[in-house]
Amino acid sequence: MGPAGSGGSMSDTLGRADSGPVAAPQQATPEHEADHVVEVRRLSLWYGEVQALTDVSMGFPRNKVTALIGPSGCGKSSLLRTINRMNELIPGVRTEGEVLLNDVDVYGKNVDSVEVRRRVGMVFQKPNPFPRSIRENILYGAKINGYRGDYDELIERSLKQAAIWDEVKSNLKRSGLALSGGQQQRLCIARAVAISPEVLLMDEPASALDPISTVKIEDLMRELVTNYTIIVVTHNLQQAARVSDYTGFMLSDEETKGQLVEFGATNDIFTAPKDKRTEDYITGRFG
Ligand SMILES: Nc1ncnc2c1ncn2[C@@H]1O[C@H](COP(=O)(O)OP(=O)(O)OP(=O)(O)O)[C@@H](O)[C@H]1O
Ligand SMILES: [Mg+2]
User: Fold this and answer.
1) What are 6-50's pLDDT values in tens digits?
2) Residue nearest to atom 25 of ligand 1 (CA)
3) Domain total of the chain
4) Global pTM value
5) What phi and psi values does residue 272 have, to the nearest 5 degrees?
6) What domain range includes position 134?
7) pLDDT tens string 98-124
8) Binding-site residues, ligand 1, Cβ < 6 A
9) In a domain, 22, yes or no
C-alpha cells in the first residue's frame, strides 16, 4: 500500500529499507518470518516510577495478524501505544529500547510523531467516531494529510474496505454517532484505513460489541490483512485463535512487569505452548 497521495517528506526516513540483510537480533520472533514491518527491541516502559514493560523484543510479520494476549494490567495496551508513539502523550512516560518501523526507529531524532501515526493507525476498544458526518469522519485525516485524490472515491473505497458501505451509502451526511456500536467501530476502521496506514493497531476492537458485530470485525480483520499488518489486543482467546497468525502472551508478576513470556505461531501457542505460564493462561487456570 502506498501513501494515499500525501507524499510527506518523512516517507523517506520511514520507508522500507532496502539495505540488505541485517544481523538477526536476539529476540522472540517467528523464525520463518523474516519480513517484519514493526520490530520491538529490548523495550521497557515506565509511567513515572511504575514500570509497565520490561525488555520486550518481538517482530510483527508483514500482512499477518498478530494477537497480544495476557491478564489485565500486563502491558498489552502500553506495548501497542509505544508502536505509534501514543504513550508519549501521557505525562511522565519514559521508554528504553527501540521500536523499528521498516527498520527505522520511530523514536529516532528526525522522525515526526505525526508521520508515525499516519503510518500506524489505531482502533480503540470504544468506538470513537467524530461528532460529524460519516463523510467527514473519513475525510478528516485525508485532508490533514493533504490528500489530493477524489474524495468520493476515497470515501467509497474506505467504507467498502471496512465492510460498512452498503449500510451507510444512502446517507453519508448522517452523523457517525447515529450509527450502532458495531457500525461505529467499522466506521472507525474505515477512518483508519482512509489514510493508507501500513499497520493497524487494534486494542480490544470488538470487546464492546454484540456477537454478530464481533464476527463482522473478525471477518474484516482477515480481509484487511491482505493489505495491512494488524496487531490486535484481545481478552477473547477464541478470537485470538480465530483471527491471528501469531500470538504473543504477556504477563506481569512481582519481579518482572510487562514481560513477553512466549511468542509464536498462534496454532503452536494454543496447542503446544512451551511455557507453563502460557499453558496455565490459555487453559483458564489464571488471568
Ligand atoms: N496512563 C497511565 N498512567 C500510569 N500507569 C498506567 C497508565 N496506563 C497504564 N498504566 C499501568 O501500566 C500497567 C499496564 O497497563 P496496560 O493498560 O498496558 O495493561 P493491559 O494489559 O492493556 O490491561 P487491560 O487488559 O486491563 O487493558 C498497569 O499496571 C497500569 O496500571
Ligand atoms: Mg488494555
Assistant:
1) 333 344 456 544 333 333 334 455 555 579 999 999 999 999 999
2) 72
3) 1
4) 0.89
5) -145, 60
6) 10-16+35-282
7) 999 999 999 999 999 999 999 999 999
8) 47, 50, 52, 70, 72-78, 90
9) no
